[in-house]
Write a structure and sequence with these properties.
By secondary structure, the protein is an alpha/beta fold. It has a domain of 182 residues: Vaccinia Virus protein VP39 (Rossmann fold, 3-Layer(aba) Sandwich), CATH 3.40.50.150. The chain is 45% helix and 21% strand. The protein has eight helices and nine strands. A seven-stranded mixed beta sheet has the order 3-2-1-4-5-9-6, with helices on both faces. Helix 4 links the parallel strand 4 and strand 5. Helix 1 packs across helix 7, helix 5 crosses helix 7 and helix 7 packs antiparallel against helix 8. The longest helix has 23 residues. The protein is globular, with a radius of gyration of 18 Å. The protein starts with 10 loop residues before the first helix and ends with a strand. Bound molecules: S-adenosylmethionine (SAM). S-adenosylmethionine binds next to helix 1, helix 2 and strand 2.
Length: 266
């Protein structure tokens, strides 16, 4: 089941993920603040560059324990250094595929952001994670629906074409591009009680934030071309338009719909 993260783990991708994380963090912080309690044991899956990790470690502070997991060793090294430099010492790290997590490890709270859409067998991973919960434990995720965006924003037409191509690429790579909207029914099928559910369109406002669209495109360009989803001239047109939009101070860009969901073991 192991497969490499589609956008790779270059320094450029780490930088893009940090900017993207800062956009999500505004909503992640209140979401997690409402769910986490001091003393909890927490597992974060797919921690990446560790922005949500810092939020969780900060909430748990001196009471509780966080295990941050990612399959990529550069992501883990980066997040470890960041966590230590922030003075959080109640955190440990696992560098492995989530499917390899030892069955006897149990947590009060299991969380992931923008990770499930990279995993192809959702019911199986969620059922595995449910088995890692302690009694009354909580599963919580923040995940996108890659082809759901506001349809009346004229300056985004070309960008929407790109998002549709990402979704098609996700289908070809057996990724779960629409995972956000699927989570509710999977949680219910697993017998979890939904305790929190909301969705929003993240907005990219600064030039730095809007630039992550073009950076993501640069990262995925070879795969989009190899899979015949966009050709070189489509991509060149998109890159030009996206550069214009990024520097236009009067324009913001909408990211795809982002679900926040939590469910509790009865
Ligand atoms: C888009 S990044 C999101 C990172 C972080 N959660 C955030 O919000 O910034 C997805 C991360 O999930 C990790 N990942 C994907 N599939 C995984 C798996 N099966 N097991 C462990 N980590 C995985 C990748 O290595 C990558 O670091």
């Amino acid at each position: 089941m192991e497969k490499p993260y589609v956008a790779g783990h270059s320094t450029e991708e780490q930088k893009r993920l940090l900017t993207q994380a800062a956009v999500y963090d505004h909503k992640t912080r209140p979401f997690l603040n409402g769910l986490l309690h001091p003393g909890m044991t927490v597992l974060e899956i797919g921690c990446g560059v560790g922005s949500a990790t810092q939020i969780i470690a900060g909430i748990l502070a001196s009471n509780g324990f966080l295990t941050a997991l990612d399959q990529d060793k550069r992501a883990i090294a980066y997040t470890k250094a960041r966590t230590l430099s922030n003075g959080y010492d109640r955190v440990d790290f696992i560098c492995d595929d989530i499917f390899n997590l030892e069955p006897n490890l149990k947590f009060d709270f299991i969380y992931g952001r923008a990770v499930l859409h990279h995993i192809n067998n959702l019911p199986s991973i969620l059922s595995k994670l449910k088995n890692h919960l302690k009694p009354r434990g909580i599963l919580a995720f923040e995940e996108p629906v890659m082809d759901n965006f506001p349809d009346n924003v004229p300056n985004q037409k070309l960008y929407y074409k790109l998002l549709k191509a990402y979704c098609a690429l996700g289908d070809k790579l057996s990724m779960s591009s629409r995972v956000g909207q699927e989570l509710h029914s999977i949680f219910v099928e697993l017998g979890l009680s939904i305790t929190s559910l909301s969705a929003y369109y993240p907005v990219l406002m600064s030039t730095e934030e809007k630039k992550i669209i073009n950076d993501g495109l640069a990262m995925l360009k070879p795969q989009l071309i190899d899979n015949n989803l966009l050709d070189v001239s489509d991509i060149a047109k998109m890159q030009e338009k996206l550069t214009q939009l990024a520097t236009d101070k009067n324009t913001c860009l909408f990211y795809p719909l982002f679900y926040q969901i939590a469910g509790c073991l009865n």
